[in-house]
Design goal:
mainly beta, about 15% helix, six-stranded antiparallel β-sheet, 2 helices
Length: about 170
């Protein structure tokens, strides 16, 4: 996992500052898990995946007498890839249906855009009024499926089960 970020503040004056925050994240995983606690391969899995994320925020802050304010824009884009392999070669499912492995690949992309603002007015030393708003728009795409690992055994077993269920009805 790596996650560098960069923050830059630029002061236009004592009361007006532009801030830029840029970050990048990259995470990779690759693990195996034997989940049933027996010596047999009843059910185990492995997972390989990665997440890549980029974000950028620009904000302008200012102060005008008793009023402090902030206005900004935010953008981020995330790409997620997740592949889980299931193994059950010594499970009764394999004996009954002939399925020893399955795969669940999933890919997702998320893009987020936002605009925000806030103002704080110090009416007195003890009273401060705040007003803020944020609008966020989120766009997602996803593709995923669970199926066999390429030998057709899971598809064939599901087709046989589906065909026998429809003919007996």
């Amino acid at each position: 996992f790596i996650q560098p970020s960069l923050k830059i503040d630029y002061d236009f004056s004592d009361s007006l500052t532009l801030t830029s925050i840029t970050s990048y994240s990259h995470y990779e995983q690759d693990f195996n898990q034997h989940t049933d606690g027996s010596t047999l391969q009843n059910f185990s899995l492995s997972n390989v995946g990665e997440i890549e994320s980029v974000s950028q925020e620009l904000r302008l802050t200012g102060e005008n007498g008793p009023v402090q304010w902030i206005a900004g824009l935010n953008y981020s884009k995330d790409n997620i890839e997740d592949n889980t392999y299931y193994y059950f070669s010594q499970n009764s499912v394999n004996g009954a249906l002939g399925i020893a492995e399955a795969l669940s690949p999933a890919d997702q992309e998320v893009e987020t855009r936002a605009i925000f603002g806030n103002a704080a007015w110090a009416v007195t030393d003890e009273i401060k009024l705040n007003l803020g708003a944020r609008y966020t728009e989120d766009e997602r795409t996803y593709s995923g499926c669970t199926g066999d690992t390429g030998d057709g055994s899971m598809a064939a077993a599901m087709w046989i089960r589906s065909s026998s269920a429809s003919t007996s009805a």
